[in-house]
Fold these 3 entries.
Entry 1:
Amino acid sequence: MKAQDAYKMMFRDYPDVVTIEQMCEMLGGISTKTGYRLLKDGTIKSFVVGRRYRIPKLYIFEYLEIMERGTANT
C-alpha cells in the first residue's frame, strides 16, 4: 500500500479541507503555534478564507510524504 493510500484511510473522517486545529491533530497533536509556522513559511500549502487558514487534506498528505522520504534517507 502506498503511503498516500494509508494516509487517506487514516484521515478519512476528516473533511477534504481542514482547519488549523484539525491539521495539528492530524499531525500528531502538534501545537497550533507550530502549525501556523508550517503554514506561514509555506512548508504546508494552504489558502486563507477571510482571516482563517484552510488546508486541503491533499497538502497534508504531500507534507507527510516529504517528511517520510526525509527520514528514510537518514
Entry 2:
Amino acid sequence: MKASQRLALFFVLALLVAGPAAGGPEHELRQNVITVIKEQLAAFQRDDGKAAFAYASPDVQDQFGTPEAYLAKFAVSYKAVYRPKHVTFLNLAYSRGRLVQRVLVVGPDGGAVVALFPMVQMTDGSWRVDGLVLVPTTGKSAEADPEPFAMLDALPGREVAAVPE
C-alpha cells in the first residue's frame, strides 16, 4: 500500500472513531465546538487576525492584547495550526473539568501533532477557544509513517493549559 493510500485510510478511520453518533446532544455540542475551531483555522488561512482573535476567549484576548499579536504568535510558534495541510477532528473530552477538542493536524512540513483546544462557553451559549497545546506524536512525517495508528498510541496523558506567551 502506498504512503498516500495509508494516509487516506488513516484519516477515514480516524473520522469513523472521532466522536459520538449523530443526533444526540453530545453530537450537537461537538459540532458547535468543531465549527468554532474550523472558523478560527479558516481565519488563520486568510491571515485574518481580527476574525481569529474573535474566536479566542476573553482571557486569551487579554493575554495577547491585539489581533495582530495573536496572529503573529500563531504564524511563528504554531505553524501546524496556522497553516495545516490536513486536519482531523478526534474526540471531544474533558480534562480537569474543561471541555477539550483533540485535533490531529499535519503541518506544512508534513509533521503530525495533536492540537488540544480547551474550550469555554460564553454566557450567550457560544463557544470560544481558551488556549492551545500541541502534543507531539511519534515525530515522524505522517505521509511517510508506515504505521499511522502508532501516532495515536504514542499520546501520553497531557494536561491542558492556556497558550503560553
Entry 3:
Amino acid sequence: MSDFLAALGLLLVIEGVIYACFPGMLRRMLEMMDQLPEQKVRYAGLAAAVAGITIVWLVRHQAAGL
C-alpha cells in the first residue's frame, strides 16, 4: 500500500509541475484532445496504462533479481 501511495504522490508532483510550468501548453493540448474521437483517446489511455504497468513490472522484476 505504501508503494501505491508513493506512486500516487509522484504522479501528483509531476502533474503539478506541468500545470505550474506549462499552463499554456497544457491548455492547447487539452483543446487538441477535445478534437480527437473518443476511441483514439481511449486507445491512447490504454497504451499509457500498459506502458506504465510494463515499466513497473520491469523495475520490480529487476529489483527482485538483485
